[in-house]
Specification:
This protein is an alpha/beta fold. The chain has helices at about 55-60, 60-70, 105-110, 115-125, 145-150, 155-170, 175-180, 195-225, 260-275, 315-330, 350-360, 370-375, 395-400, 420, 435-445, 450-455, and strands at about 5-10, 25-30, 45, 75-80, 85, 100, 130, 135, 185, 195, 280-285, 285-290, 305-310, 335-345, 365-370, 405. The model is unreliable at about 220-245 (pLDDT under 50).
Length: about 475
């Protein structure tokens, strides 16, 4: 059987999801910038022969270079922690961005995308070159690929001109394909592809040769503050305007990623060239964009901290803040507290407000996105019982190392130190809870549904105890 290696690129110092999928290996691009140890099983691109230190300008291309120089396989593939291929034989619904948009890469999504060994192998071994499906430039508000680059914020079309000038000089047989692609109306995004060994080594040798030459020539022009107009009529009818000065040293953050953007355009040129040759089997695969990719990261409470858990959605943020503010006002100055908020949609900006306003030497606050854990469950919510009510069942999973924790609904006002609850002796008991008069009243006839739920679903012998 052919050996298939598909590398999923992650950013350094990130805490992104790492789903276990056949043939997919997770790797940190720019591993030299990793501040701490990498997660178990994560590959790094700064071993062997590498250019990991160029990640801030080359982006995911440092992963491609590392694989080219250090990995032996029959097929090489590349995608991102937020974007995966679909191997489904069916055309799946796409959003306006040209991608299948999914909230999570859960079991249901993996089944939809056919991310199983047999489906992946069937496509990969049948084709020499698989590429992420093209996006019409019309959807990108550009008349062609060249104009799309010209209009991109932070980029400078003269860099593309220079790159093409070098391409035409070094590899003149690619000129026809380059002109066709750059003047065309189909843009291949994200540097996502799977190639057989022969094509990949051919592609990589040209790509990094071209980028090396580009960097050398661009540096010369930057040092001399010169501006060169390239490819006046090489690959597009609309040539760029001249200007008085150019200094790539003053590029914005996006501009400094120019080599990565140029590599993305070269992938489209190379695909167009291979397609024109007609001797290789090629295919476009749909691309799935995963909206939630952060792994729920909870700082573990130390043995002196009291774990406190609550849950809320974005609409309940004001009530949650009042609750936690009241809790903070009642803390014992001799104790320490670690608050965990389970949620799926609270904005980063709001999370930062909580941490800024509440955290101190006594209190730490962590927001845990439980969306991935809850995906696939149908949570029945009714009236005051919201989906967040069920999140308390995740405490055993998220805080499995804690001997016990305090759960608080987010619509409470705290008037005494919650450490008193935590300190209750639970030896021989699973939990300590207060009698809820409202719930008892519902069971006693105020709400027949609640009574039936207690009897039939919970099968409680006596819901009033």
């Amino acid at each position: 059987m052919n050996e298939i290696k598909i590398f999923v690129t992650h950013s350094p110092n990130a805490n992104s999801i790492r789903p276990q999928i056949p043939f997919f290996d997770h790797i940190t691009a720019g591993s030299v910038f990793q501040l701490g140890p990498l997660p178990k099983g994560m590959l790094r691109d700064d071993t062997g022969t590498h250019i990991s230190e160029k990640n801030k300008s080359y982006c995911e291309l440092t992963t491609q270079y590392w694989a080219w120089k250090n990995v032996t396989a029959d097929h090489y593939g590349f995608c991102h922690y937020r974007r995966y291929f679909s191997f489904s034989s069916e055309l799946l619904p796409e959003a306006g961005c040209g991608s299948i948009v999914l909230p999570y890469l859960d079991k249901k999504a993996r089944k939809m995308l056919c991310l199983e060994e047999t489906d992946i192998r069937a496509d990969v071994e049948q084709y020499d070159f698989l590429i992420a499906k093209a996006v019409p430039t019309e959807a990108l508000y550009a008349k062609n690929v060249y104009e799309h680059y010209r209009q991109a914020p932070g980029l400078h079309v003269e860099d593309l001109d220079l790159f093409c000038q070098i391409l035409y000089e070094k590899y003149p047989h690619m000129q026809k394909a380059a002109k066709a692609y750059l003047n065309g109306v189909r843009f291949y995004p994200c540097n996502m592809f799977i190639m057989n060994r022969e094509l990949f080594h051919w592609y990589a040798s040209m790509l990094f040769d071209l980028l090396d030459a580009y960097e050398q020539q661009a540096a010369v022009f930057a040092d001399k503050y010169e501006w060169q107009r390239f490819a006046r009529d090489k690959h597009t009818k609309g040539s760029c305007d001249t200007t008085d000065g150019r200094d790539t040293k003053r590029y914005s953050r996006e501009g400094l990623r120019t080599p990565g953007h140029l590599g993305e355009r070269f992938l489209g040129i190379f695909y167009e060239y291979i397609r024109q040759l007609g001797t290789w089997k090629v295919k476009e695969l749909q691309m799935a964009l995963i909206e939630h990719t952060q792994r729920p990261a909870a700082r573990r409470p130390d043995h002196q901290e009291i774990p406190i858990v609550s849950a809320a959605n974005a609409s309940y943020v004001p009530a949650l803040f009042v609750c936690l503010r009241s809790l903070a006002d009642c803390t014992d100055p001799r104790r320490r507290y670690h608050i965990y908020i389970f949620h799926t949609d609270i904005r980063i900006e709001d999370q930062q407000i909580f941490q800024t306003e509440l955290e101190n030497e006594q209190i730490r606050v962590d927001f845990i996105d439980v969306g991935m854990r809850m995906a696939g469950y149908r949570l029945k919510a009714k009236g005051k019982i919201t989906a967040e009510t069920y999140y308390r069942f995740l405490i055993l999973d998220v805080l499995k190392d804690c001997p016990k924790a305090v759960w608080l609904d987010c619509d409470l006002i705290i008037r005494r130190d919650v450490a008193q609850l935590y300190d209750l002796d639970l030896d021989g008991y699973w939990l300590a809870a207060a009698v809820d008069p409202d719930f008892a009243g519902q069971c006693n006839g105020a709400n027949p549904d609640t009574a039936r739920y207690c009897q039939q679903t919970l099968q409680l012998k006596d819901p009033f105890q």
